Amino acid sequence: MKKIISFILILIVLLIGCSNKEKDNNNIQYSKTEEIIGTVISGTIYGENSKEALCEAFERAEYIEKIMSVKIQDSEISNLNNTAFNNEVKVSNELFYVLEKAMYYSKLTEGAFDFTIGGLIDLWAIGTENAKVPKHEEIINLLELDNYKNIQINSENKTVKFLKDTVKIDLGAIAKGYVADEMKKVICEKYNIHSGILNLGGNVIAIGKKNNNSLWKVGICNPINNSYVIATLESSDETVVTSGNYERYFIENGMKYHHILDPNTGYPANSGLISTTIVTESSIDADALSTATYVLGLDKSKELVESIDNVEGVFITEDMVIDMTSGINNRIKVIQNDT
Ligand code: AMP
Ligand code: MG
Q1: Are 297 and 243 in contact (CB under 8 A)?
Q2: Among the listed ranges 5-14, 68-77, 238-247, which one has the minimum average pLDDT value?
Q3: Comparing 281 with 2, which gets the higher pLDDT?
Q4: Among candidates 94, 92, 117, which has minimal Cα distance to 173?
């Protein structure tokens, strides 16, 4: 419930100035919200055929969910997880694209982002009713076995092979970004609509400008009270993706256990950061980097993000210090609130 309320609040911030529902042909607006791929997806777009465009974008999201969700028993990723040990399995173009990106970011971040820790993610079961602190030995056993180096990706044949039978892929840190990019593609490329906003539970894509020609205002949640926004930035044709310790977690014996795991320790990442936001053009890249930077901590993250062209980051430490890369300093407006 709390999540839904905060989601609605953030949406209100996002959509400031967008309540005008004129229906003339040059100014048609359509909005839609649905839960897909484990997250609430919400969108508002402006332009002729906006209803058809947004509905088709949602259909595309559902199509990708059936490929990439490990929660769906007969999804392509579930089948791959069940059959790829010692066996080269041919995968769809969509899945191959995401797996190649996932491998790229696993290597780039030396395993801070690791798409092969599905076993560890299942063990913690954070975000489900079975969430619990596992036995230390169980964590250690999985740590010794699994990492991205145990997967072979063959670019020529678009095949994937696991070198260990315990490997399990989980695309939870990257698939939402891909879905966001693909939804945008349907809206902009197929329907030629260039005004709108999509929010996939913290992955925001700003398409063009608002219908009154002003920039979109995107909020970054206050990580210690995510009913509030702690900073805003004005945005157009870019994505703003946040990973935070408030998204999925449980509390046991007064300790908070959140859903972003450090593949080095097997425990929820404890890098000193509690929120990481990446701002760039493509949401799949932003999604991978927001998770990776959460694990890497402030210094390494700033260094990494500064080294990549056209990517910026906003990082919030557990002491509530807001730090950011040089290219975004003058765009972030910090909001004082009493939390
Ligand atoms: P995000 O909200 O994008 O940061 O992604 C978090 C989700 O990605 C979790 O719910 C897990 O499914 C998965 N995940 C957790 N830790 C990692 C990690 N270090 N690398 C890759 N995926 C992860
Ligand atoms: Mg992510």
Answers
A1: no
A2: 5-14
A3: 281
A4: 117
Integer Cα distance of 54 and 195 in angstroms: 12
Using the predicted structure, report yes or no on whether residue 5 has a pLDDT greater than 80.
no
Interhelix angle for 175-185 vs 50-68, to 10°?
150
| Ligand 1 and 247: CB distance under 6 A | yes
Q: What is the pLDDT of residue 22?
A: 38
215: nearest Cα among 197, 189, 228, 203: 197
> Which residue lies with its CA nearest to atom 10 of ligand 1?
259
Length of the chain, in residues: 339
What's the pLDDT tens digit per position in 120-132? 999 999 999 999 9
Grouping H, G, I as helix, E, B as strand and the rest as coil, residue 11 is helix
Q: Please give the structure tokens belonging to residue 45.
A: 């777009």
**What's the 118 CA to ligand 1 centre distance in angstroms?**
9
pTM of the model: 0.92
For the beta carbon of residue 269, count every other beta carbon within 10 angstroms. 24
Structure tokens at 148: 């991205």
Q: How far is the CA of 158 from the centre of ligand 2 (A)?
A: 24
Q: Which helix (H) or strand (E) holds 255?
A: strand 255-258
What string of DSSP letters covers 113-132? S-TTBHHHHHHH-TTSTT--
Asked if residue 146 has its Cβ within 6 Å of ligand 1, the reply is no
